[in-house]
Design brief:
Number of strands: 12
Structural class: alpha+beta
Radius of gyration: 56 Å
Bound molecules: calcium ion
Distance between the termini: 147 Å
Strand content: 15-25%
Helix content: 25-40%
Number of helices: 5
Length: 302
């Protein structure tokens, strides 16, 4: 069915159903041609937030890792240059350091060796003539017999030795020796050994002891003294003794302990290396040196 609309009013001849259709369904407006975008849903918003958050975490982690790496390399280079500088200074390098710094490095390098060597390696020794034992401040290394050449021989040695009680031998070929060592005796009959030592040791053989002193590095025997000079420690004092001036044999002069001992059962007169007191004579100033007085001695360590 069709209806007639006024042409004056822009009536047109239209199909009735079409007209009804238009009444039921309004004609699309200009806005319906370009409809607005629907608003983002809540799911889309959350996803975006998660992505942004993840990206932030990744970027922050990367920046942290880069920072840590840079700091590590800077610190490593600092240590390397520091060690290199010390090494160069230890080798006498020419890097720009103050003399004070160089002195500190050298002192630090040398100090352990110096301390160890001075405290633990320093040792000296002396022979205590006329005794089997050592002093309070020394340790016995060995004890034995005082020996030398015989009093009436021209050759041989002038040294006086402290022979150990237990010798160690190598080759043995009897009869080919051309020099001899003898035992020794206190032989100062004319000067009255008993008056000096307080006991009669005439013809008795002489013992000896080799003593070591830890913590000291020097030893000296001072003649004509009973006390040490400053900063030296007294080990023992006694009397100078050596060979008789009228005998053929010249011998070392030794400091015999003021309280001597003798080798057991050595009273027989065997006349090997004979020891006598020593007295001042000749052009030595008198006073203070006096004739007929036994010259003293002291053994000191430092
Ligand atoms: Ca004897
Ligand atoms: Ca004798």
């Amino acid at each position: 069915m069709s209806v007639i609309f006024s042409t004056q009013d822009k009536y047109v001849n239209m199909d009735r159903d079409a007209f009804s259709e238009e009444v039921i369904t309004p004609a699309p407006s200009s806005s319906s041609v370009s409809p607005p975008l629907p608003p983002p849903s809540a799911t889309v918003k959350k996803s975006t937030m998660y992505i942004i958050l993840a990206l932030s975490v990744v970027v922050t982690s990367m920046m942290f890792a880069v920072t840590v790496t840079i700091v590590y390399h800077i610190a490593k280079e600092g240590n390397t240059s520091s060690n290199g500088g010390n090494a160069a200074r230890s080798r006498g390098g020419t890097d720009n350091v103050s003399s004070g710094s160089q002195a500190h490095v050298q002192a630090t390098t040398q100090s352990p060796d110096k301390g160890t060597s001075n405290d633990k390696r320093s040792v000296t020794y002396f022979t205590r003539w006329g005794r089997y034992n050592c002093t309070r401040t020394s340790d016995l290394l060995y004890a034995g017999y005082t020996a030398g050449s015989r009093y009436n021989q021209i050759g041989g040695t002038s040294n006086i030795l402290c022979l150990p009680k237990q010798p160690q031998y190598k080759a043995s070929f009897p009869g080919r020796s051309r020099s001899y060592l003898y035992g020794s005796e206190y032989n100062a009959r004319g000067t009255n050994l008993a008056a000096v030592f307080g006991k009669d040791l005439n013809e008795h053989d002489i013992p000896c002891a080799v003593c070591e002193v830890t913590g000291s590095s020097a030893m000296m025997m001072v003649p004509a003294r009973t006390e040490c000079y400053r900063d030296w420690d007294k080990q023992y004092s006694g009397y100078l003794m050596t060979s008789n001036s009228a005998h053929n044999k010249s011998m070392d002069i030794v400091c015999m302990d003021e309280n001597p001992e003798s080798i057991s059962k050595s009273e027989a007169n065997n006349n090997g290396a004979l020891f006598y007191f020593v007295e001042a004579s000749g052009q030595l100033p008198s006073p203070p040196y006096s004739r007929d007085t036994e010259i003293t001695c002291v053994v000191c360590t430092k």
